[in-house]
Amino acid sequence: MLPWSNSSATPLSQLLSFIFTFLSFLPRISWALDWIDYSPDGFATMTHYSLPENFIAACGCTSTSTNYPTAAMNQMAYGSSTSYGPACGQCFNLTLLNSFLSNPPFYPNVTKSVVIKITDLCPLSHSGWCNATTHGPNAAGHYLNFDLAWPSSSIPNDFFPSNEPFYGYTDFGVWNISYQSVSCTNWEGWNHAAALGSVANLGYSACCPGNPTGNTNDTCPSYSDNNGIPPDTQTSGFAISSSISFLPIVTLAVSLLSHML
Ligand SMILES: *[C@@H]1O[C@H](CO)[C@@H](O)[C@H](O)[C@H]1NC(C)=O
Ligand SMILES: *[C@@H]1O[C@H](CO)[C@@H](O)[C@H](O)[C@H]1NC(C)=O
Ligand SMILES: *[C@@H]1O[C@H](CO)[C@@H](O)[C@H](O)[C@H]1NC(C)=O
Ligand SMILES: *[C@@H]1O[C@H](CO)[C@@H](O)[C@H](O)[C@H]1NC(C)=O
Ligand SMILES: *[C@@H]1O[C@H](CO)[C@@H](O)[C@H](O)[C@H]1NC(C)=O
Prior knowledge:
The structure is a single chain. By secondary structure, this protein is an alpha/beta fold. It has two domains: 9-26 and 244-261; 41-226, Barwin-like endoglucanases, CATH 2.40.40. It has five helices and six strands, in the order H-E-E-H-E-E-E-H-E-H-H. It starts with 8 loop residues before the first helix and ends with a helix. The chain binds 2-acetamido-2-deoxy-beta-D-glucopyranose (NAG) (5 copies).
């Protein structure tokens, strides 16, 4: 008799363990294939959210980056479900086109543009402006949403054009915009070394290239592809999982909150 045949549990448990291991990789594999592949320029929506000055958002860019125009990008284009993703550090020129929720739509008589650096993640939700996936766009028909950190010391308070006498309000909330991927040498923070790069004390759990080009040597990988998705610790207070650092959890919780407001 061969040694293994009187212990039928061994091959079965090996098989089960193989199946389990295989299954546990599946969500990660399908997740990785599902990031939105957007073109370097096109149309998008722009919303705005409040990011406190000096706040270290999902990418882990330096606190000084908040002194210059920054934005969060919708999760499935950002390229990670938590912490940093390939979009971190990238710069875009955003130009306001029209409001479309207002009745009638508002077409400003001035052209307003801002060059932003992506420092934050706008979490995927079922509805809302950051809900685009490879299966479909957001309610404006766009696959990208830029959530502008505004008010900001670097962007005038009258950045968003309005016509209060006609509409009765000044904030349209969401805009149809055009965007262009641009070199970060066009970003207002470019000549300020402290505004570039990631915070030092986060080590490898932060990633914020000064001017990412898409090459692997200057562009962030996807945190969630490489590390999986950390457990949801939002309702359990400040429980810290040993494999992930504290800050991304806090940042995600705060950015989730601020994007819901
Ligand atoms: C951004 O777009 C506006 C409007 O098209 C344009 O005038 C401006 O030169 C652009 N800025 C950069 C840095 O590409
Ligand atoms: C996003 O939400 C809008 C409604 O707000 C919906 O029409 C659209 O289908 C949603 N997109 C996806 C990809 O779920
Ligand atoms: C956004 O602007 C583009 C270009 O003008 C236009 O084709 C598109 O219909 C607009 N989308 C919305 C939702 O207003
Ligand atoms: C531009 O539009 C605003 C209202 O949206 C109006 O107050 C202003 O007079 C207009 N400017 C010009 C030059 O037409
Ligand atoms: C990345 O690699 C390219 C060549 O593949 C090189 O030209 C470039 O300087 C490198 N960038 C950095 C930031 O190391």
